Fold NAD-dependent epimerase/dehydratase domain-containing protein.
Amino acid sequence: MTIVPPPAKVLVTGANGYIAIWVVRLLLEQGYSVRGTVRSAGKGEYLTEYFGKLGFGDKLEIVVVEDITKEGAFDQAVQGVDAIEHTASPFITSLVNLSDFVDPAVRGTVGVLQSAIKHAPNVKRIVITSSCGAVMAPPPQPTIFSETDWNTSSQMDIDKNGVNADPLSKYRVSKTLAEKAAWEFYEKHKGSIGWELVVINPPFVFGPPIQEITGGPESLNTSLKPFYDALVGDGPKTEKLLSTSNSWVDVRDTALSHILAIQKEAAAGERIIVCGGAYLWQEWFDAANTIQPYPLPNHPPAKGMPGITAPYVIQYNTAKADKLLGIRYKTKAETIRDTLEIFAAKGW
């Protein structure tokens, strides 16, 4: 098992994404050089400007991969790198056709692995961003999931409802199929390759967005838009919303797990759930009301219904991540404060 310490060169696919840009930032801050892929030159301009202002201009290279589903799409991008962080995959609930989710997820994932075998002899570790959507299944009773679990219920939703299935089911199926394809590819080739695979599975990802946001709050990424709507928006704070539960992780902890995955020997060949904990939406309101000074004075935090309780329906066993990565997860208050400071800076 071989680790990849700085100043190694790391490829980050989909580098302009919500999680990916934090992966790029943490890599650069730790002394790595980064090659990031984007789907157009325009999307790369923001990255060049953003990281240039932070003093990393000479450590960041941007390359355009217009269509990650094409055969050989990553052939040039992988050349000369020591590790790969594959984050590129759509999470856009407005998509309708299952293929719009699955094709980029599966073909992009298998494609980057194929390119690594053919054109990246120096690669020692490949990290793939999967999702707890590939792990969980909405249960009738509270359940604690682990890395041994796989989502099967989302495929059942699609088999039953087709294009009318829940968009989250389509997304979860895409992540499940992509991750399974990655593990099958790895098992088939691991006797003849020089790199090891790690898969990171986060649940809902919240936290400060540093990616390019071209409009107002309506243009936030899919996981952060409900966060804004609940905490800052004017929508009703109903008992149903406030008692809804799920699990979450801060985007910076998610990104850090990707860096630790190339630095820790024991992470090689592992599927790792990275989760900051379970939540009720009411707990986010409670945490927001502890922050002083509050970053959005014109939008004081709603109280919700303090004291409301409900079971945590979906939880995750993080023992493996605790042992292999040792992350100290950010608290809800830290995540809210830092996220709202970004919103305030944008005048929202």
